[in-house]
């Protein structure tokens, strides 16, 4: 999960990384907050999850309470690459001498953390030539690192103890006084480590930078609490298309999304359940997937399962179909343990609800059934 | 022949008394794998699926010094210590089925394993199967179904996805072919055993004439394949599918910061496909195409 700048800076502070003095504004009184900060020259920064806000009017400067008010309003009302502006961070304007770059992330090729440092940081870091970038590979079993690079060990502590996938300071500002300050923060935490971070209590967000939809929030609850270890059925990303999908298995879902778009249909969502989830979890998920208005089709597809009980997971889908009784075409492709029983139950459900439904097993490949759905939609 | 496992491999199951561990032990025994011992602290002396349970890996090895593979079925928060216990006891191959292990724990275990030249397959790996020989984990499901999908043959299978290991193996069978070995490497960002590691094994395996890979975007593992082929360490026909092209239709912002872009310079999906093509790898547009591309070479 990606953190907002202000959240990242709060974490930086805990690890001894200097950050500018600041106040956080929700949609509250700008003048009061400006006075609270008590600094004349300020920078106001949109709190969004994607980068490039500097080039998209997400960072403005102000020299008075009135100017600050105008700048904050501008940020809350402007469109910063379609991102949700969660808050505005008002900070002291720094007396910048140099902009450096510092980050730690995992290098998948070496399968270990790598610290990246450059004295040429700032907005165009991706264009800086390799010879101006220093990479230091880290042994993750070491508790600390020794380095002349400013805040190197502090950032490493932050990386380890916050279970981060990425920690980045860009720019790492060198002030005219010679001190270093983290002028920005980018942290992505590893949500799989939640069990050792009881303190993780971040406001809702999506990986797309917009606010989660009601359906997304509802689906997320399916895997929470005691249900966490009983298969996965809590993945739902709402999209703009009109074909609802219920895929089984991560790999199959990726291949199927590609296949759906290849035949010219547009997904209404991305959803995947796996690991043999119980009937109730699948039913909850399926009901939410089918609740989206304006659907023109439903594609339920998965590979030849290893151990997922096809009849039991189908029962969950049937619970939803019995309730919603969709009139649009439905295509199913699935195989694995208990497939005959699953098929029989599904056919009975189609019959009693008068569904326009075709069901396939492993005699046909997954991708080909996307074409079958397209044909049914075209012949309606 | 086969890679990683054969009829004589002696297998240990860590976490054998849990629901998943028990299921895995049963599924391996059913397929003919020699599961000789299980581990569960505090439950030494019990028997699960006909397999004796020990309190620790060391105790299991005292009774069965010929164990060469362990497979780990514990909750994510216990995974690191279970894997490290296997590493400390020098078991050469560790299959980790555990999903959702914190990436930091995986990185730690990989660093420890690398030092001792121990092979970790996974995390999030359902295991691997050498048809007609044996399997580790639950790839293929119940034997009656596994036998419909798997038969000894000439195609090596590598997949980032457990379900797709089975699905892809089925497409191979449907085309009238069989598999030499099928390996689920797991879908985590950090892979214990990579495509390139397995291709080296498939290169040496006489039964394997060609290999197919179901990949997912993310990571730089495809470039290792390019290096391997350039160095002539893998010379057999290879077809690759890299899933996740749809991600392009999602708005930007899924990646954070520049760290990934700097570390992974020159590694976009297009650059990956281009690099693979340039060394003669067959690129499949869909997963079904993997089989049509590789069939002439089987």
Structural class of chain B: alpha/beta
- Radius of gyration of chain B (Å): 19 Å
Helix residue percentage of chain A: 25-40%
SSE pattern of chain A, N- to C-terminal:
HEHEEHEEEEHEEEHEEHEHEHEHEH
Fourth-level CATH superfamily of the largest domain in chain A = Succinyl-CoA synthetase domains
Q: Given the helix and strand composition of chain A, which structural class is it? A: alpha+beta
Q: Which segments of chain A are poorly predicted (pLDDT under 50) over 5 or more consecutive residues? A: none
Shape of chain A: elongated
Give the second-level CATH assignment, the architecture of chain B: 3-Layer(aba) Sandwich
Q: How do the strands line up in the largest sheet of chain B?
A: 3-4-2-1-5-6-7
Measured between the Cα atoms of the first and last residue of chain A, the distance is: 42 Å
Largest sheet of chain B: 7 strands, mixed
Continuous helix count of chain A: 10
Mean pLDDT of chain B: 92
**How large a portion of the residues of chain B is in β-strands, by DSSP E?**
15-25%
The overall pLDDT of chain A, averaged over residues, is 94
Describe how the helices and strands are arranged.
The complex is a heterodimer of chains A (about 375) and B (about 300).
Chain A: H1 5-14, E1 22-25, H2 30-37, E2 42-47, E3 59-62, H3 65-77, E4 87-92, E5 96-107, E6 112-118, E7 133-137, H4 152-161, E8 164-175, E9 180-182, E10 186-189, H5 214-222, E11 232-238, E12 243-248, H6 250-262, E13 269-274, H7 279-290, E14 297-304, H8 310-324, E15 330-335, H9 339-353, E16 357-360, H10 366-378
Helix pairs in contact in A: 2-3, 5-7, 6-10, 7-8, 8-9
Chain B: E1 10-14, H1 19-31, E2 34-39, E3 47-48, E4 51-54, H2 57-63, E5 67-72, H3 76-88, E6 93-96, H4 103-115, E7 119-121, E8 127-130, E9 134-137, H5 143-149, E10 152-159, H6 162-174, E11 179-184, H7 195-204, E12 210-216, H8 221-230, E13 238-243, H9 259-263, H10 269-278, E14 282-283, H11 287-294
Parallel strand pairs in B: 1-2, 1-5, 2-4, 5-6, 6-7, 10-11, 10-12, 12-13, 13-14
Antiparallel strand pairs in B: 3-4, 8-9, 8-11
């Amino acid at each position: 999960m990606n953190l907002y700048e202000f959240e990242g800076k709060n974490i930086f502070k805990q690890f001894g990384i200097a950050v500018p003095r600041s106040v956080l504004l929700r949609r509250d009184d700008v003048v009061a907050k400006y006075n609270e900060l008590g600094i004349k020259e300020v920078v106001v920064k949109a709190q969004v999850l994607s980068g490039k806000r500097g080039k998209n009017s997400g960072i403005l400067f102000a020299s008075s309470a009135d100017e600050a008010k105008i700048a904050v309003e501008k940020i809350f009302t402007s469109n910063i690459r379609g991102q949700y502006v969660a808050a505005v961070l008002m900070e002291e304007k720094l007396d910048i001498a140099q902009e450096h770059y510092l980050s730690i992330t995992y290098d998948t090729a070496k399968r270990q953390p790598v610290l990246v440092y450059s004295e040429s940081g700032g907005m165009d870091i991706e264009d800086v030539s390799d010879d101006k970038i220093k990479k230091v590979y880290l042994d993750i079993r070491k508790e600390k690192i020794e380095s002349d690079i400013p805040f190197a060990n502090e950032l490493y502590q932050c990386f380890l103890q916050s279970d981060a996938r990425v920690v980045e300071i860009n720019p790492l500002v060198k002030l005219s006084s010679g001190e270093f300050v983290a002028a920005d923060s980018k942290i992505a935490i590893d949500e799989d480590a939640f069990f050792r971070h009881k303190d993780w209590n971040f406001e809702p967000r999506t990986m797309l930078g917009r606010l989660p939809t009601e359906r997304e929030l509802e689906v997320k609850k399916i895997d929470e609490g005691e249900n966490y270890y009983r298969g996965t059925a809590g993945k739902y990303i709402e999209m703009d298309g009109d074909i609802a999908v219920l895929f089984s298995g991560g790999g199959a879902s990726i291949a199927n999304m590609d296949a759906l778009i290849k035949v010219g249909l547009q997904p209404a969502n991305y959803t995947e359940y796996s690991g043999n989830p119980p009937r109730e979890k699948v039913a909850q998920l399926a009901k939410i997937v089918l609740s989206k208005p304006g659907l023109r089709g439903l594609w339920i597809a998965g590979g030849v399962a290893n151990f997922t009980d096809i009849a039991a997971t189908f029962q969950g889908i049937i619970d939803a179909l019995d309730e919603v009784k969709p009139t649009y075409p439905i295509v199913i492709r699935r195989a694995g343990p208990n497939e005959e029983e699953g098929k029989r139950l599904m056919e009975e459900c189609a019959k009693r609800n008068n569904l326009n439904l075709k069901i396939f097993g492993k005699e046909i490949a997954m991708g080909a059934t996307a074409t079958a759905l397209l044909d049914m939609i075209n012949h309606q | 022949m086969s890679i990683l496992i054969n009829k004589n491999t002696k297998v240990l199951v860590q976490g054998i008394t849990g629901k998943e561990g028990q299921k895995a032990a049963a599924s391996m025994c059913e397929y003919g794998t020699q599961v000789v011992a299980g581990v569960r602290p505090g439950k030494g002396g019990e028997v699960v699926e006909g397999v004796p349970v020990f309190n620790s890996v060391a105790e299991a090895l005292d009774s069965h010094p010929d164990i060469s593979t362990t497979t780990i079925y514990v909750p994510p928060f216990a995974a690191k210590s279970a894997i490290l216990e296997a590493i400390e006891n020098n078991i050469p191959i560790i299959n980790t089925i555990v999903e959702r292990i914190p990436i930091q724990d995986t990185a730690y275990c990989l660093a420890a394993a690398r030092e001792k030249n121990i092979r970790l397959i996974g995390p999030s790996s359902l295991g691997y199967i050498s048809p007609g020989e044996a399997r580790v984990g639950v790839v293929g499901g119940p034997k009656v179904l596994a036998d419909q999908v798997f038969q000894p043959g000439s195609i090596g299978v590598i997949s980032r996805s457990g379900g797709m290991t089975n699905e892809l193996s089925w497409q191979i069978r449907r085309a009238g072919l069989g598999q030499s070995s099928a390996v689920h490497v797991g879908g985590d960002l950090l892979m214990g055993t990579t495509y390139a590691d397995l291709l080296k094994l498939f290169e040496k395996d006489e039964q394997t004439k060609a290999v197919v890979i179901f990949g997912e975007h993310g990571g730089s593992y495809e470039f290792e394949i390019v290096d391997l082929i350039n160095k002539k360490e893998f010379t057999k026909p290879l077809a690759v599918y890299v899933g996740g092209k749809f991600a392009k239709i999602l708005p930007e912002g899924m990646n954070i910061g520049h760290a990934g872009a700097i570390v992974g310079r020159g590694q976009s999906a297009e650059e990956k496909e281009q690099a693979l093509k340039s060394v003669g790898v067959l690129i499949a547009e869909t997963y079904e195409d993997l089989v049509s591309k590789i069939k002439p070479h089987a």
